[in-house]
Amino acid sequence: MKAVILAAGKGERLSQGKDESKPKPLIPLLGLSLLERTILSAKESGLYDFTIVVGYISEEVVKYVETNQKHLGVNIDFVENEEWEKGNGLSVLKAKKTLKEEDFVLLMCDHVFDSSILKELLGYAKNRGSKCVLCVDKPENVFDLDDATKIEIRGNKPKSIGKRIENYNAVDCGIFYCTSEMFDALENEIGKGKYELSDAVQCLIEDEKIEVLDIGGRFWCDIDTPESLEYAKRKMLDSLTKPTDGVVSEYINRRFSKRVSKRLVNTNITPTQITVMSFIMALASAAFFFLGEYKYLIMGGLLAQASSIIDGCDGEVARLKFLETDYGAFVDSILDRYADGAMILGLIFGYWMLNGGISVWIIGFFALTGSFMISYTNARFENIFEKSVKTRIPIRRDMRLFIIMIGAFFNHVLAMLLLLAILTNIEVFRRLFSMQR
Amino acid sequence: MKAVILAAGKGERLSQGKDESKPKPLIPLLGLSLLERTILSAKESGLYDFTIVVGYISEEVVKYVETNQKHLGVNIDFVENEEWEKGNGLSVLKAKKTLKEEDFVLLMCDHVFDSSILKELLGYAKNRGSKCVLCVDKPENVFDLDDATKIEIRGNKPKSIGKRIENYNAVDCGIFYCTSEMFDALENEIGKGKYELSDAVQCLIEDEKIEVLDIGGRFWCDIDTPESLEYAKRKMLDSLTKPTDGVVSEYINRRFSKRVSKRLVNTNITPTQITVMSFIMALASAAFFFLGEYKYLIMGGLLAQASSIIDGCDGEVARLKFLETDYGAFVDSILDRYADGAMILGLIFGYWMLNGGISVWIIGFFALTGSFMISYTNARFENIFEKSVKTRIPIRRDMRLFIIMIGAFFNHVLAMLLLLAILTNIEVFRRLFSMQR
After folding, report:
1. In this complex, which of A345, A361, A436 lies closest to B327 when CB atoms are compared?
2. What would the pLDDT profile of A228-243 be if each residue is shown by its tens digit?
3. Is residue A331 within 8 angstroms of chain B, CB to CB?
4. Structural domains present in chain B
5. Residue B392: which of B344, B337, B431 has the closest Cα?
6. In the Cβ-directed half-sphere of A214, how many Cα atoms lie within 13 Å?
7. What residues of A are in contact with residue B358 (Cβ under 8 Å)?
8. Which of B338, B375, B384 lies nearest to residue A330, judging by beta carbons?
9. More confident call, B239 vs A14
10. Is the pLDDT assigned to residue B13 strictly greater than 90?
11. Rg, chain B, Cα only
C-alpha cells in the first residue's frame, strides 16, 4: 500500500519570519525533519512506498529527500502541485496518477504521530472492507484547538467537519485511510471551486462513505507554530520513559538522559556509539575502583552513575530517530553485563588492596552472581513465558549502579557489596518461588 | 475435535503367555501405559476430547483410565464393543454415537507416535476441506513389515490397501483424519460381513474419498510383539538427544542419562525433583572443592560430571512422560547458573586456601563471568532474534563441567579456571562481533 504525504505548504506561522526560506517539511524536530519523521513513522507501520506532494520551494524539498533517500530505505515518487496555495485538497488529487492500487494512506508532513496509530488504522481498515477512515482525537487532547479541524460525531458516525463548526466533539488528526472514493469526492468539490481536503471529507460524510477511528489518547501533534513544535518535542521526550523503568531510572536517570539525548539527536552519533561510550565510562569507573583509595572511589561512583544515565541515551536516541535494531539491543545487554562485572571486580580489588582479607572476595562473588542472575532471569522469563518478569525488590541495573555510587560516596564498599548480594539473590529466589504457585 | 481411540483388542502376541490377564492398552512403555501414551500424544497436538472403544477385559481398562483421568487432564467417553473379536472396523462404528461433530481423528491405542505427526495431519486436513486423510510411511521405516497394513500409492493417490497386497509402496500408520464418510463406508462394508477398518478404507479409496499424508520419516511404531515394544523403547530413548546438545552431552552424558531416565520413568519422581537432585549434587561437588586437597578435588570432579549427567535426566523424563512445563524449564536454568557459581567459588576457595595468592580469585572471577555470559547470550539471543545462537567454541555447560572434572583429576585448578575464563569470554565476544555483519 502506498502513503501519500502532503508537503506542499509554506508553514509561514512556524518560521515566523526567522528563516523564511526553509520550507516547512524540512523544519527539524529532535534530529529529523518533519517530513523524514512522517516517512519513518509510516515505514515503522509497514509502509514502504510513498508519494510526496511538493509545492512551496519544491526543488529544495526534493533535493533534501533524494539526498537522504538511501538511509530512509523507502521508495518515493514526487508530485508537484504548482497551485499549492489554492488548498490541500488539490494536492491530494495531484497524487492520483502515481497510485496503482485503489486504497492508500493519506498523511500530512507537519503532523507528527505515534506510529502505533497508523498500525491500528491499517488493521481497522482491513476489516471494514473498502471504506474511508479518518483518525480522530478528543478535543481536550489537542494543543492548538483554535486551529484544529473539528468534527461532530453522533452515534459513532461523523456528521460534519470544519475549522469553524459550532458543535463538535472530536478533532481530525490528519491521518486517513482512503479509497478511490476520496478522489471522486475531491474531483466533485474542486469542480465547484472548493479546494480544501475537508470539503471533500464533508462530501464523503454526507454520503456515509467515511468512518472515524478514535486514536485512544495516543500522541499526535499538528506542528503549526514554534509553540506547537516545542510542545511536540516535550511530549516526545516524555514518552521515552519505559514501563519497565526502575525507580532510579524513572525519577533520576531519565531526567538527565533525556536532556543529553535531546542534544545527541542533532549529531551523527549512533545509538551503538552511545552504548560503547557508556561501556567505556563503566570501565573507567571500574579503573578508579581498582585504585581503592577514597578519593578515587568517589570518582568511580560518579562515573558509574553517569554511565548508568548514558546507558539510557542509546535507546532514547534510537527511538527518537527510528534507529532501533535487534543488534543494538543485543550489544547493549552484553556490554552492560561486562560493565557490571568490571565494576564489581574493581570494587573488590580496591577494597582488598587496602584492607586485605578474603571476605570481600566472597561477598563480591555473591554480588556478581546476584547481579547477573537478575538480568539472566529477566531474559529467561521472557524466553519461556513471553512476557516481562515482575520485579518486587527494585534491584535492576539502575538501582544497582545507584547503590554502588552511594556506597562509594560513603566509603562503605563491603556493606554495599553485601547489600547488592542480598537484595539481588533474594529477588531471584522470589522470582523462582513466586512462579511455583 | 474428538479423537477416537481403538483399545478393544487382546494383544495376545504381546503378552506371549506371560501375563495374559493384562489387556494390551495397559501394557507399560517407558513409564506410561500404551493407552495413556496415545491420549497424551493427542493432547499434545491439541485434542482434549476422547472416545475410547474398549472390548477385551473392558472393566479393567475403564477402571485404570478413570483412576488416572485427573492427571491426564482430558475428557473421556467410553464405548464398549462386545463383539471386539469380529474386527476393528466394528469398533470404529461403535464410536459414532458419541460424536457430535462430523470430523474426528482415529487412533490405535497400540500405535505410539511422535505427536508432531498428528499436529501436521490436523493442519493438513484443515486445508483440504472435508476429506478423510490417512498417514502413511515408507515400508523401509517399519519394524515388522510382515504384519503391517500395506498401501499402494500411484501419483499421490492411494489405489489399494491390505495386509496381503502384492504391489505396495507405503504402509498405514494407523493415524486417520475421518469425516462422516468413514461411517458410511463402515456401515456399507459391515453390511457385507467385512468387519475390518481396512475394508472400509479400501471402499473410500475406490470412491476417491480418502487422501494420504506421508509422515516424512518421523517416529511411529505398531506395538504387537515384545520385540516391537523393545524397538519402540530404544527409538524413543534415542530421540532424546537434542540438536542443541554439545559434544560432551551427545557422546558421553546422554549415554548415561538415558539409562538413568529409563529407570526413573518407572518411578513417581518428577522432573523438578530430578532438577533439584542434580543441583544438590553440584552443591556437594562445590563443597568438596572448598576443601581444596587433591583427594577431595577428585570427588568434587566426579560429582560435577555426575550432576551434569543427571541434569539431562529431568528433560528426558519430562519428554518421555509428557511432563514438560515452562516452570520446569525456568527452574532448571536458574539452578544451573547457581550450581555453576557454587562450583567455581568452591574451586577458587579450595585453591586459595592451599596456595594463597590473589590471582586465583581474579582468574576465577573471569571464569564465572564467562560462564554466565555464555548462558546469558544464549537467552538474550533467543529473546531478540527468536532462534538459538550458533556456538562455535563448544563451551556450553556440558563442556564446562567436563573441563572442571578433568582439571580436578589432574589437580590443575588454576589452569582449568584460566581455560574456562578464556574460552567462554572469547566465545561471547565472537557471538557479539559475528552478528555485526
Report:
1. A436
2. 999 999 999 999 988 8
3. yes
4. 2-234 (3.90.550.10), 241-434 (1.20.120.1760)
5. B431
6. 12
7. 352
8. B384
9. B239
10. no
11. 27
